[in-house]
Amino acid sequence: MLQEGISGFVERWLQGDDTAFEAVFYYFQPRLLRYTFRYLKNEAAAEDITTEVLVKVWQNKRSITNPATFENYLFTIARHRLIKAWYKKMDGLLGLDAAGELSDPTGANDPVLYKELVQHYQESLSKLPEQRRRIFLLHREQNLSYREIAEQLNISPKTVENQIAATLKQLRAQLAQYLASLIL
Prior knowledge:
Blueprint: H1 4-14, H2 21-40, H3 43-59, H4 70-94, H5 111-126, H6 130-140, H7 146-153, H8 157-183
């Protein structure tokens, strides 16, 4: 629920007084920044998401019909942006570097959180069926082509392709579930 003072500015802004948005901006910007920073542990990324949220709210002003739910609307957008940022991080995690080493693709300054994500990735990987995990690791860690893996395992390249696609889909789903649980 909005505090009494800011709710008046929200209402004025939604009714067409664009000058009232300045008060709305300065009230919510620090709160959004703390919220996004709490999950990202990266000041620049938190500032980017906070700015994106406030710009989106400004652009979608006409779709906001209830000033009483404005704060919920704002933080729901922020939450969705955080999840999107985590998905990017997860996709970076699934794209191992050429040396087969895991690296933080975002450069985030939260080694503990990143270590947890890598640990969850390793656990998810260990739960894969043996053949699927073997195909995935041959491709990701030894940089073998689909054809090379197919020859080594005496299966078709299409089977290799299907197994890697299924592995990526499964890992993305498991990591997305884990990341979403961090934000909820």
